Amino acid sequence: MKKTVLETIGLTKRFGNVTSLNSIDMQVDRGEWVSIMGPSGSGKTTLLNILSCLDTPTEGRYILDGVDTSTLTERQRVVVRREKIGLIFQQFHLVPYLTALENVMLAQYYHSMIDKSDAVEVLERVQLGHRIDHLPSQLSGGEQQRVCIARALINQPAIILADEPTGNLDEANEEIILNIFKELHNEGRSIILVTHNPELADFSDRVIRLHHGRIEREMHVRETSCT
């Protein structure tokens, strides 16, 4: 029996007179890889910001790993974000004066569990064991994105949220990142991926297409066996 890790009910977000999201109902099962697609202005970024607890809905509910985030204070949402969500950004957001290892350990610090060996292990997993002492400026774009993935994984999150993780990468680095996501999915990780790249979305279990703040359609790419 599949278990729901994430659910939204009537999720709506307004900015003044503009409705960015209009009554979004969606569920993501544990171990499922869902890709969110749609044209610019369709509400993808707004939805991801709410799912990552960086923003709150105007109306509706958002339940993550059994926690109704709609009832939480800002401080409580910060805790949920640190403990349950692994965030991967298109723009990396690495601390420039910290090494790759220190950037990953910083995520541990906010989680109050610092373990250097774990940080080294997760960097080795993304093929950066030989670059742990390098600053972001000494890493290529693909390597920086892999540091972001390591940082997202270090605290064993309930779900991984990724915003255009290959958007700034060349074809070779895109393939490396894709292979990492495929490995994570095969391990039963829950993934929500915002992407414009249909080839990337083809590896997901399901595609949700947004248009003008609504779910225009959903398409099952393949069935997930994770429970």
From TrEMBL:
<dbReference type="InterPro" id="IPR027417">
    <property type="entry name" value="P-loop_NTPase"/>
</dbReference>
<keyword id="KW-0547">Nucleotide-binding</keyword>
<comment type="similarity">
    <text>Belongs to the ABC transporter superfamily. Macrolide exporter (TC 3.A.1.122) family.</text>
</comment>
<dbReference type="InterPro" id="IPR003439">
    <property type="entry name" value="ABC_transporter-like_ATP-bd"/>
</dbReference>
<dbReference type="GO" id="GO:0098796">
    <property type="term" value="C:membrane protein complex"/>
</dbReference>
<protein>
    <submittedName>
        <fullName>ABC transporter ATP-binding protein</fullName>
    </submittedName>
</protein>
<dbReference type="Pfam" id="PF00005">
    <property type="entry name" value="ABC_tran"/>
</dbReference>
<keyword id="KW-0813">Transport</keyword>
<dbReference type="GO" id="GO:0022857">
    <property type="term" value="F:transmembrane transporter activity"/>
</dbReference>
<dbReference type="InterPro" id="IPR017871">
    <property type="entry name" value="ABC_transporter-like_CS"/>
</dbReference>
<feature type="domain" description="ABC transporter">
    <location>
        <begin position="6"/>
        <end position="227"/>
    </location>
</feature>
<dbReference type="GO" id="GO:0005524">
    <property type="term" value="F:ATP binding"/>
</dbReference>
<dbReference type="InterPro" id="IPR003593">
    <property type="entry name" value="AAA+_ATPase"/>
</dbReference>
<dbReference type="InterPro" id="IPR017911">
    <property type="entry name" value="MacB-like_ATP-bd"/>
</dbReference>
<dbReference type="GO" id="GO:0016887">
    <property type="term" value="F:ATP hydrolysis activity"/>
</dbReference>
<keyword id="KW-0067">ATP-binding</keyword>
